[in-house]
TrEMBL record, chain A:
It is found in: Cell envelope. Residues 1-17 form the signal peptide. The keyword Signal applies. Gene3D superfamilies: Dipeptide-binding Protein, Domain 1, Dipeptide-binding Protein, Domain 3, Periplasmic binding protein-like II. InterPro entries: Peptide/Ni-bd, SBP_5, SBP_5_dom. The gene is oppA. GO terms for molecular function: peptide transmembrane transporter activity. Belongs to the bacterial solute-binding protein 5 family. Residues 76-458 form the Solute-binding protein family domain. SUPFAM superfamilies: Periplasmic binding protein-like II. Keywords: Signal, Transport. It holds the Pfam family SBP_bac_5. GO terms for cellular component: ATP-binding cassette (ABC) transporter complex; outer membrane-bounded periplasmic space. This is Oligopeptide-binding protein OppA.
Automatic annotation (TrEMBL), chain B:
PROSITE patterns: ABC_TM1. One of its GO terms (cellular component) is plasma membrane. PANTHER family: INNER MEMBRANE ABC TRANSPORTER, OLIGOPEPTIDE TRANSPORT SYSTEM PERMEASE PROTEIN OPPB. It is a multi-pass membrane protein. Belongs to the binding-protein-dependent transport system permease family. It comes from the Bacteria. Residues 93-290 form the ABC transmembrane type-1 domain. It is found in: Cell membrane. One of its GO terms (biological process) is transmembrane transport. InterPro entries: BPD_transp_1_N (IPR045621), MetI-like (IPR000515), MetI-like_sf (IPR035906). The chain crosses the membrane at residues 9-30, 93-117, 129-154, 169-190, 229-251, 271-297. This is Oligopeptide transport system permease protein OppB. Keywords: Cell membrane, Membrane, Transmembrane, Transmembrane helix, Transport.
């Protein structure tokens, strides 16, 4: 035992010594064109057909490229397609592809796109975002197994460089959609070799984007290097991109502040105010909103006056300035700012910013009295449903406090685990629920088609004939002005009836060192695009 | 000994079977499935369920799972398409095991040395100091300790990286965070048992015969005081080696511990079952090894062990 004790003491001293020896963090390598970027939790896959998260999509956008790529202003710019033509009726697109190659040196042809899109729609692939290709003729039917022959799907190649796409209806945002990862090309040879595994391994990952995958250490980091075979490689100034996978926002902040990373994607909510003073915190627009949804099957929430009263009783400016404090903007309509409008550079929201009245306690009390609940008397205790997230509860508490103060209504907050919460919504076993939504594409439709009668995500069970008709009108409209007008009229109906009560629009706060330039922080689909990035 | 080992092996297999069955069915009883999110149209969801065989009757799924398990195949992850549960465990376990082993050694070294010193100097100021430290070690939660250590050593002193380092130096803070609680428990266990041992007649007699106090402490009292600690070590070793969710999250270590929590949230049935089975396996092995160790330290325990 004596020897053992001595060994213990020895180990103890060695460990202590190791802990005390100073080791300086590596100096910032500003000379080298390398960005160290923390993206958060481990992505599930890099196969664009199988992924459905912003983390996955951000990496895929660096490693792959579709027909177009979004530029700094969020407009489609030529990608693998150097030009395109749209038919008179808006239903046929003819893309002309440039000469380009995969990272393995093989040429990329129109046939690669045909293969990739059919793969997304193939029921066996089981792509969660397959619906992004439902605009194609027979896209949905093929995915549902009703059409068996992939040749009947509306995408075909003509020669090596012509891709012809036929849609069931004109889709004004279809071009932008080709910049979305679901529509990226994947390499058939790589996929054939190893089913879904090809996208898990740098040795088999074959891409065509500005960067190539050099290393993927699971739950630790990605190393991406400039792809010398990329068609526009002259524009790519970064030599490498290190993408770390640190999930904890406080740890991420500690790494940023100690110089271990250059860009931090998700600064902790509670630190945003302090960080805003340091100038390193930046805000980029985000096409997303937060709202409270009413179960319109249930009294008293089936009464529009009740819903309006609950909405008028909340002070949205106070919520964003005193509770959330993460750069959010009070919402007085449903579609967030930044969503495209009738013309380039003209946002949809610029047509009309405010569709509902702000904080108005007197009017709120009056409406509630008219509905039969003067001063809140006889109003049942409201059950407010949240998914459990540390950021949701403070808002819900402030909001229910405002209801109580203004209207005399009591509310109970119910938190449920994410998946349980979704099931509760699906079973309509709720009264009022907090919901967040973000855009699939940059168009008012991605927010407004939620509330069509029997829409899969219309858990408010709200239905309005005129609303449905206006969205149909927008779908068929040829003139962008008329289309936006139909959207706005529909949104006005939504905001008069308020099956959903908007609270605020999100913005995306992130930390970025001053020596970083040219990183684009898009308002949806991707956290960041590094194609044009550099280090000064 | 061989008969004993065989008996234990059969018993452990039975335990594993119960764990597998419970995990399999309990996970499927939870509301939601791996693919519950908004935006998924019914036909898309059907395709996904079919891809993973989740549209088949539960009994078929269960027997299929057992069949694969018998071939040591834990199945594909449902959250990470293209990765198998075997791969995930193979990649992440070594990281957890390294940190865990360091923490285990650290807690034994600290625990035993401080515990012995504390018992030897009972009720004097070093003893009191050790007891205060042990109470702190037991009451400060590891997320607070981890955050505090990062603040001091990474942000203020800048001696150690804040996170993400798997170099030996980078493992110091996570190992220290992990070791604090078990070290405190071991200190208390060893101290109590040492005091008890030191008060026994044969120790008093040994002292009376004039043996020096070091020899009494280490040769006579300590072996008797260690068996309690070794019993505590077997579940501790299993827990430390297979990783801690909180410590791995704070220090951004790519270990196994995070999957205990995230896989349940994701309803990644195969991954939940896989990490649970793996943890059970490590626990059963370490319990067995601890029993052997106790047997070697103190042959008297043979009788008790053979009863189990």
């Amino acid at each position: 035992m004596n020897k053992l004790t001595r060994l213990f003491i020895y180990i103890f001293l060695v460990v202590l010594a190791a802990g005390c020896s100073p080791s300086k963090p590596a100096p910032n390598q500003t000379v080298r064109q390398t960005i160290r970027y923390n993206i958060g939790a481990e992505p599930a896959t890099l196969d664009p057909a199988l992924s459905n998260g912003v983390t996955e999509q951000t990496l895929e956008n660096a490693l792959l490229e579709g027909l177009v790529r979004m530029d700094r202003d969020g407009n489609p710019s030529p990608g693998i397609a150097k030009s395109w033509e749209v038919s008179e009726d808006g239903k046929t697109y003819i893309f002309t592809l440039r000469e380009s190659t995969w990272t393995d040196g093989e040429p990329l042809t129109a046939e690669d796109f045909v293969y990739s899109w059919r793969r997304v729609l193939d029921p066996e692939t089981a792509s969660p975002y397959a619906y992004q290709l439902y605009y194609l003729v027979n896209g949905e039917a093929f995915n549902a197994g009703k059409v068996k022959d992939p040749a009947e799907v509306g995408v075909r190649a003509e020669g090596k460089d012509k891709l012809i796409v036929t849609l069931t209806e004109p889709v004004p945002y279809f071009l932008s959609l080709t910049a979305f990862p679901t529509l990226f090309p994947v390499n058939k040879k790589a996929v054939d070799k190893d089913g879904a595994g090809w996208a898990q391994n740098p040795a088999t990952f074959t891409g065509n984007g500005p960067f190539k995958l050099t290393a993927w250490e699971h739950n630790k980091q990605f190393i991406l290097e400039k792809n010398e075979r990329y068609w526009d490689q002259e524009s790519v100034r970064l030599k490498s991109l290190v993408v770390t996978l640190v999930d904890d926002s406080n740890t991420e902040l500690a790494m940023f502040e100690s110089g271990q990373i250059d860009i931090a994607e998700t600064p902790p909510y509670r630190e945003v105010e302090r960080l805003a003073k340091s100038n390193l915190l930046k805000l980029s627009p985000d096409l997303s909103n937060e709202f409270y949804m009413f179960n319109t099957n249930l009294p008293p929430f089936d009464d529009v006056r009740v819903r309006q009263a609950l909405s008028l009783a909340i002070d949205r400016e106070a919520l964003v300035s005193k509770v959330t404090m993460g750069g959010e903007k009070a919402a007085y309509a449903f579609v967030p700012p930044g969503v495209n409008g009738p013309a380039p550079g003209q946002e949809f929201r610029s047509l009309d910013e405010k569709l509902i009245a702000g904080f108005n306690p007197a009017e709120a009390r009056k409406l509630l009295a008219e509905a039969g609940y003067p001063e809140g008397r006889g109003f049942p205790k409201v059950k407010l449903l949240l998914s459990n997230n540390q950021n949701h509860r403070p808002v819900a508490e402030a909001l229910t406090g405002m209801w109580k103060e203004t209207l005399g209504i009591e509310a109970e907050i119910i938190e449920q685990e994410y998946k349980v919460y979704f099931r509760t919504l699906d079973e309509r076993d709720y009264q009022v629920a907090r919901v967040g939504w973000n855009a699939d594409y940059n168009d008012p439709m991605t927010f407004l088609d939620l509330w069509e009668t029997d829409g899969p995500n219309n858990q408010a069970d709200w239905s309005n004939e005129e609303y449905d008709r206006l969205l149909e009108e927008a779908r068929l409209a040829k003139d962008p002005g008329a289309r936006m007008d139909a959207f706005l009229r529909a949104e006005k109906i939504l905001m008069d009836e308020q099956p959903v009560m908007p609270v605020y629009y999100y913005t995306n706060p992130y930390l970025e060192n001053d020596n970083i330039q040219g990183v684009i922080h898009p308002s949806f689909a991707f956290f960041a695009d590094f194609k044009w990035a550099s280090v000064n | 000994m061989a008969g004993y080992i065989l008996k234990r092996a059969v018993f452990n297999l039975g335990v594993m079977f119960v764990v597998v069955t419970l995990t399999f069915f309990l996970m499927r009883l939870l509301p939601g499935d791996p693919f519950t999110t908004r935006r998924v149209a019914p036909e898309i969801k059907d395709n996904i369920l079919a891809r993973y065989g989740l549209n088949q009757p539960l009994v078929t799924q269960y027997t299929g799972y057992l069949y694969n398990l018998a071939r040591l195949d834990l199945g594909p992850s449902l959250k990470y398409p293209g990765r198998s549960v075997n791969d995930i465990i193979k990649e992440s376990f070594p990281v957890s095991a390294t940190v865990g082993l360091l923490a285990l050694l650290l807690s034994i070294v600290l625990g035993v040395s401080l515990g012995v010193a504390s018992a030897a100097l009972r009720n004097k100021w070093p003893d009191r100091l050790v007891l205060v430290l042990a109470t702190l070690g037991m009451s400060v939660p590891n997320f607070a300790l981890g955050a505090g250590l990062i603040y001091i050593f990474a942000l203020k002193l800048r001696w150690l990286p804040a996170a993400m380092s798997t170099s030996p130096v980078g493992l110091v803070l996570p190992a220290l965070t992990l070791a604090a609680l078990p070290a405190a428990i071991i200190v208390r266990l060893v101290r109590t048992e040492m005091i008890e041992a030191l008060d026994r007649d044969y120790i008093v007699a040994a002292r009376a015969r004039g043996l020096n106090s070091c020899s009494v402490l280490f040769r006579h009292a300590l072996p008797n005081a260690l068996s309690g600690m070794v019993h505590y070590l077997s579940p501790l070793a299993a827990t430390l080696l297979t990783g801690s969710f909180i410590v791995e999250k704070i220090f951004a270590l790519p270990g196994l511990g995070q999957y205990y929590v995230t896989s349940v949230g994701n309803r990644d049935y195969n991954l939940v079952a896989g990490v649970t089975i793996f943890y059970t396996f490590v626990l059963l092995v370490s319990t067995f090894l601890a029993d052997v160790l106790i047997f070697l330290i103190n042959p008297q325990s043979r009788v008790r062990d053979e009863v189990t």
